[in-house]
Design goal:
Blueprint: H1 3-17, E1 31-46, E2 51-66, E3 70-75, E4 78-85, E5 102-111, E6 119-130, E7 133-149, E8 153-169, E9 179-192, E10 198-202, E11 228-232, E12 236-240, E13 247-255, E14 258-274, H2 278-301
Antiparallel strand pairs: 1-6, 1-8, 2-3, 2-7, 4-5, 5-6, 7-14, 8-12, 8-13, 9-10, 9-11, 9-14
Length: about 325
């Protein structure tokens, strides 16, 4: 029985599957990672004495996909955690980091009182993929209502927010098509019901005076940008507000008498894919063939006993 040859074959196969090249250098499994997260706190609308918020409503949404198919959820205030892969339902608070193939999205409006106590909401999208996988994650919250103004009024918006983006693709992934992208957005819009025209829009970008009113006060830094996206390819890493700093935002707009449809929307979205180098695929393929060959060798050197074989102890 050639046990030495079998062990050598099996050892070589296992070594190749683990990604060890002929030089002995470890070949890591290619990966891509992306996360987008946003927390909004203390959201208050100052309606003055002549304005009223009527029929407020909200919706919270989440989704996760892999190669197209996936899962999605929605709820007026708390969408269920949408996830695929190595994630548990309880892991929906904050970024998880790298732990295996998974895609996930989650969102929740924790307070809808934007007039007195202050509204709050958060959403997250995250994905970590190994080898050849295309994954996406999504989380969003939307608050709607109508602001009715009798006469004229100055409407104020004030809130705090913590944006966070991070993306990374390992250097052993092919570029293109390997990539990782993370995006977040936040906007406040008012539409005049009588004309259908947008009379106010604000998408905080970390730059003072960039709302349609020109009155917004922001942190004046790229880290405070609530409407941003980052993308990287092979061997690159990028992030925004990695320290998770809390920034403050405020704006006001002067409106005439009338009814105005209000929409406050926040979204987080990620997408990425990982395609390994041809050499990695070749090594994995050879390794699998080696395992098959070693199993066949063991079957040949250890044949089943013949039921007619006579054994002698002498």
């Amino acid at each position: 029985m050639n046990t030495l040859g079998t062990k050598k074959t099996l050892g070589l196969a296992l070594t190749t599957v683990l990604g060890l090249g002929v030089t002995g250098n470890v070949q890591a499994v290619p990966f891509a990672y992306a996360v987008a997260e946003m927390n909004v706190e203390n959201f208050l609308i100052d309606l003055g004495s002549n304005a009223t918020l009527i029929n407020p409503g909200s919706v919270s949404e989440s989704s996760a996909t892999r190669f197209g198919p996936g899962t999605s959820n929605s709820d007026p205030v708390d969408a269920l955690h949408s996830f695929l892969g190595a994630v548990n339902p309880g892991e929906n608070q904050g970024a998880i980091g790298q732990l295996g193939d998974y895609e996930r999205g989650d969102a929740q409006i924790t307070s809808v009182d934007v007039v007195v106590a202050g509204g709050s909401a958060w959403s997250i999208a995250e994905s970590y993929t190994l080898l050849d996988t295309l994954g996406t994650g999504f989380g969003a919250n939307t608050l709607t209502g109508m602001i009715a103004i009798d006469g004229s009024e100055t409407i104020g918006f004030n809130f705090d927010a913590t944006p966070y983006l991070e993306v990374e693709v390992s250097p052993d992934a092919v570029t293109p098509p390997s990539f990782a992208t993370a995006e977040l957005s936040f906007s406040i819009t008012l539409v005049d019901q009588s004309t259908g025209g947008v009379v106010y829009s604000w998408a905080p970008d970390g730059v003072d005076g960039n709302s349609s009113s020109g009155n917004d006060n922001e942190a004046d830094t790229a880290e405070a940008n609530l409407n941003n996206g980052i993308v990287v390819h092979s061997g690159a890493h990028d992030d925004q507000n990695h320290a998770r700093t809390l920034f403050s935002y405020s704006d006001f707009v002067n409106l005439d008498e009338g009814n105005y449809n209000l929409t406050i929307a926040m979204t987080t979205r990620v997408a990425q894919t990982t395609v390994p180098e041809p050499a990695i695929l070749l090594l994995l393929g050879i390794g699998l063939m080696g395992l098959v060959y070693s199993r066949r060798q063991r079957k040949q050197v250890c044949p089943k006993p013949n039921k007619f074989q006579v054994f002698s102890l002498t």
